[in-house]
Structure formats: C-alpha cells, structure tokens
Design goal:
Elements lengths: L2 E6 L19 E2 L2 E2 H11 L4 E6 L3 H8 L5 E5 L6 H9 L7 E5 L2 E2 L2 H13 L4 E7 L9 E10 L2 E11 L6 E9 L4 H5 L20 H10 L4 E5 L5 E2 L3 H17 L5 E2 L4 E2 L4 E3 L2 E3 L4 E2 L4 E3 L2 E3 L4 E3 L3 E3 L2 E3 L4 E3 L3 E7 L4 E4 L2 E6 L4 E4 L2 E6 L10 E2 L11 E3 L2 E3 L8 E3 L4 E2 L4 E2 L4 E2 L4 E2 L4 E2 L8 E2 L18
Parallel strand pairs: 1-4, 1-6, 4-5, 8-12, 14-17, 15-18, 16-19, 17-20, 18-21, 19-22, 20-23, 21-24, 22-25, 23-25, 24-26, 25-27, 26-28, 27-29, 29-33, 30-35, 33-36, 34-37, 35-38, 37-39
Antiparallel strand pairs: 2-3, 6-11, 7-13, 8-11, 9-10, 9-11, 31-32
Length: about 475
Amino acid sequence: MDTAIVLAAGLGRKVWPYGEFRQKCTIPVANKPIVRRVVENLLEAGYQRIVVVVGHHAQQVRGALADIPNTVFVTQHSLEGTASAVLTALEHLEDQPYLVVYGDTVTTADNLRNFTKEFRSYNVEAAALVQALGDEDASDWLCAGIGTEEVENRRVLKLNGIEGHPRGGSHRLCGVYAFKSCATTYLLSNPGIVTRVPVGGMPPPESEIAQSLQLMVDDGRTVLAVQAEDFFVDVDKPWHVLEANNRLVDYLTKQVTEDQIADGAKISDAAEINGHVVLGKNSVIGPRVVVNGTLIAGANNNITNGAILHGNIFVGDQCRISDYCDVGSSAIGNRCIIGHGAEMAGVLFDKVYLYHYCEMSGVFGCATDIGAATVCGTLRFDDKDTPIQVEGRYEIPPYGANATYMGDYCRTGVNAIIMPGRRIGAYSVVGPGVILYDDVPSKTMVMAKQELITKPWGPERYGW
C-alpha cells in the first residue's frame, strides 16, 4: 500500500471565520497549511503517491502542495460527501490497497505509520483510526462502537458499527481509513446519507465514508479499529484551530533536547534563557530577553529589548518581538510584529501587527492590525465558558471557549474591548472604543456612537 488519498474539497462552514475565504485545509498550523502537513506526514510514513481531491477553493490547495512530487489533483465537481470524493480519486488508482485521510486533520506521522502497520498486519478489507472521546461531547462526532474479534489467532479491536452524532459514545472516527480494492463496492453502495443515527437525528444528504463501513459491518466483514496513539485534532470548528496549533507546538517542542543555533544566529550574553532554543539563520535574541520554556524560531527574527517569552513558542520567519512584550505559549506566523508592552497567547497567522500595548488571546487571521490598548476578555464574571453558535447550534467548546477568533484582513481601533468568545469575520473592523458583545459578520465595520455633553465651566464654579 503506497498510495494515499487526501480529501480537501469541503466547504468548511463550521470553522468560520476561517473557512469563508480560504479552504479550511489550508489553515496554518504551526505556520504550515494543514493539508501540507498531512501530505508530508504521509510521505514520512512511507507513502509514495498522493492523490488529492479538491473542490471548494481548489487553487489554494494546489498552491500549498505544488512543489511536492508525485502529487496528483482530482476535482470533485459536486460536493456530495466523502465517499463520493474517494470514488472520484479511485479513477486514478490501480487495483491496490489505499489509505484515505481527511485533509483537515492534524496529527503525527507516527500515528499514520502505526495505523498502516496495523492494517498490513491482518487480512482484513478495511480499517479505521479511532480516538477515545474523553470529555468531548459524542454528539459532535461520527462515533464508533468498538468490540474485539480473533483474527489470525490474535485478538484485535474491530468496529461493531457507527452512529452519527449520538447522545453518547466512547470513540469517534478520526477521518483516517484504509481499504483494499475489494472494499470499493461498499463505497459504490453508499446510500448517500448516514442511516445509523439516534431517534430524532437529522443527517444531511451526503455520502459519508462511515456509512460505507457500516455496510461492511452489516455484511459480516471485519473492519479493523486502530486507536490513535499520539494527539489527533479534526479541525472542524474555530476552537479546533487553537487546539491544533497548541498541541502540535507542544509536540514539536518536546522533540527539542538541545539548543540548535543556525549560521549567523546570535544570542546575547545579556539574555536569560531557561530552556532550549532552536534559532534559524540570522535570527537574534538580544539583551534583556527572557525565555522560560522551549522556543523554536525560524530565520531572520529579531527578538530583543526585554521581550518575555514563556511556555512553548513556535515563531516563523522575519518577525520582530521586542520592547518588553509578554508572549505565552503561541504559534506566531511569518513577518509578525509584537511590540511595546503587547501581551499575546494563542495563534497569529502571517503578518499580524501588535505594535503597542494590547492584550490578545485567541486566533488572529492573516494581515491583521491590532490597535493600541485593544483587549480580549478571557474571564467572565460567572467564571463559565462562553457558548458559541455554529451553524445555528449553540455549543460550549471544550477548548478555548473564551478565546477571540478573528478572521483574515481585520483591524481594531484603539481601546477596543472584545468580550470572551467573540468571532470577527474576515475583512472586518472593530472601531475605537467599541465594547464588542456580539460576533461581527465578515466585511463589516462596527463603530461606537459617542454622546457628548458640553456645558460652561471655569473658576466661577469654584466661587471666584
């Protein structure tokens, strides 16, 4: 099995404000598009040929992968579901086993390598990667019932069946599947809707791969279930962008066991380093800088003049982080500026400017300019998490509920205050002095209306 199919055609509506003007699979995680990380992980896991199914904002996906050899693009013209997408790709495959990976998933090459090894170890027609739900709400996911079966004198996990967004469940499907060519008939037989749902469930009319697995189970076929060993994030909603970045940065920094200083890079003797540093070519850590944790920084960065960095931090290229700013655990894009007295924790896409005193927490889109004294609230008076409405349904995110989620090409004015859990659409402005209690649609400016009272005043008011 040396061919993998990557699905990167979907609309990504739930991840707003990031999926409206960009393909969800190209959202950056640790400064690299998700779909590119998927493909690089597949290559590292031993796959030699990649077939990428594109559709919505197809050119963004092609652009993210254009320089990777042995990558073929096919177009899903009618976005009828994931099973349909795989059938579109199969026209370019020979009669051989193949892997299917959703292009909006963030994990490690080891997870994919282990999954492939398990599938190859048993004489089964299909396999699915699963993850224990833990504290997550089962109703957010396609879930799998797990049982055991003896295959070739070994006891293995298998799927007992699937259920779409149930009221309870122990495992969810991760969007990573393996099939032998003989299983293709079950993709062709897909009814175009998930039939295994709770009473009162309302599945959309689309052909989901999970339903094809259910057809196999109903037909007495063994579908191997392989549990994810490393972290796995399905980027479906805005808080998953924050979670995926944080988990991947934590994973990458844990791989750093010693300092790595590239040619031309320098660390001032007047800097205080309490942890490991990976510093790219010509990057500088200047005087009075404090690093408490692990820092991975790219090329041509200037980190200087009292900047305070704590936690695990991943920085792109050509950034300036300086002047007594405070940066917590973060993924920072390329060409970003974090300046005087600014505080930041979360994710900055490319070219985000935090020039002067501000307090930012969340995910901030490309080419966004934050005005001085902009503040993101992160703590409610009732100490609770903020419900967020996604596609008409209110949910309480299990991760990053009170963070701010700002789309690409946005601006804020001075003294803007953004209340916990607010989302701001792309191409939007939050004006000076605004206290933002509600989400802002894309391409919208919100301004505060000020009422002034003018009256006479002077020394006579004090008895002179």
